[in-house]
Amino acid sequence: MSSIEDRFRALTPNSARLAERAEHVMPGGDTRTTTYHRPYPLTIARGEGPFLFDADGNRYVDLLGNYTSLVHGNAYPPILEAATKAARGGTAWPARSEAQIELAELICSRVDSIERVRFCNSGTEAGMLAAQLARRLTGRKLILMARHGYHGSYDDLELGLLGHDGERTLLGTFGDAASFEKIFAERGAETAAVFLEPVMGSAGMVAPPPGFLGQVATVAHRAGAMLVIDEVITLRLHEGGAQKLFGLRPHITMMGKIIGGGFPVGAIGASAEIMKAFDPRERGSMLHSGTFNGNPVTCAAGAVSVRELTQARIDKMDAQAKRLAAELVRAARDLELPFSVRQTGSLMNIFFTREPPPPTILREDSKMIANFHLAALTHGLFFAPRGLIALSTVISDELLSEICERGADALTDLAGAAH
Question: Which of 116, 125, 343, 411 is the one with CA 20 to 30 A from 254?
Fold first, then answer.
């Protein structure tokens, strides 16, 4: 595969130079594990609409949107205008803003299970807060989640990503309701909550089999445990979130990414009764603070992001994603490459296997996906090293045709190098 890497290096000398500089001050030269790839990650200079531009001036079609958070692309003018206006009035203060109220109102109006919202600064914080709330309300300590699920970097939840249970973390198998029922039968009285992604992201964009989510919700309810649905990446799948698509009404919803409009954000939402636990007017209420919770710039940007993510735009992205998945499968088949795609709405993950693997972060095709990722970069396509693709509302049908062509060219390079 040296020819692919050689071309990448030839196109990105400034990124190489900056990578060496970065490695002297940051471990691995970066501060996000998931963005690292060999021989070195790009240094991005700016983003505009559906495009990213690196330190060498190369243009890429952005097919990741900062891991699904930029649902309206880069520097979306209405978001930029709202954030700039907010920043001119001050970037933070220890009191609410009207933008914070507006964003909370938008979320409550769209997601049926949410009557009150509590903001924080990341999806990880949302997971920590949801676990704290569930433990407080149930008086129990255990968390149940899916093996290879991902709910942020909080220890009790991150264990599951690696496929390990822990002192306070139990693991079921996504798609297998019986595995969750067995755990509830054995330790249900100790379990505070079950955490589930409606569609597993880091494990390969795995959609649930029919009935699975409802069955787990039912058994959790019987055990007196809370159902926490992680909508950090899936809120984009419907105006009412993925829970609307799958007919769920969770006790607690985790949110992040698109509700910040490109700025750091996290939140949990639930019924007024559940969220009363945070009300400082209530005796013994939970302590929850954070210097940048409900930041006025974030909330101003997030309100635009949420308001402008209409169902019509969601449906258009869904149709485009189906077309892209089909075109990539066709191109790979013509080249006789093993290839498969998991796609739900505007999100997909690609694999160099005949069939998508079961939910896992461990890849049998790690070498091929790494080289295809590098080949795609040399053809101006930017997506996650693991093959995650997230479309945005600013990708036109004409640009999608170009994306399909560039993807086919990258597959051709991969096939040539493999032989």
Answer: 343
Helices 98-110 and 296-307 pack at an angle, to 10 degrees, of 30
Residue 207 one-letter amino acid: A
Question: What is the CATH architecture assignment of 77-307?
Answer: 3-Layer(aba) Sandwich (3.40)
Amino acid 418: pLDDT: 75
The answer to whether domain 1-71+312-338+380-393 and domain 77-307 are alike in fold is no
Cα-based distances in Å from 354 to 131, 249, 332, 339: 38, 36, 11, 5
Q: Rounded to two decimals, what is the model's pTM?
A: 0.97
pLDDT tens-place string over residues 248-291:
999 999 999 999 999 999 999 999 999 999 999 999 999 999 99
The residues spanned by each domain of the chain are: 1-71+312-338+380-393, 77-307
CA 365 to chain centre: 22
Query: Which of 197, 187, 261, 260 has the alpha carbon at shortest distance from 228?
Result: 197
Does 1-71+312-338+380-393 carry CATH code 3.90.1150.10? yes
Over residues 82-121, the pLDDT tens digits come to: 999 999 999 999 999 999 999 999 999 999 999 999 999 9
Distance (Å, whole) CA 212 – CA 198:
10
* Cα separations in angstroms, 10 against 44, 57, 380: 16, 13, 14
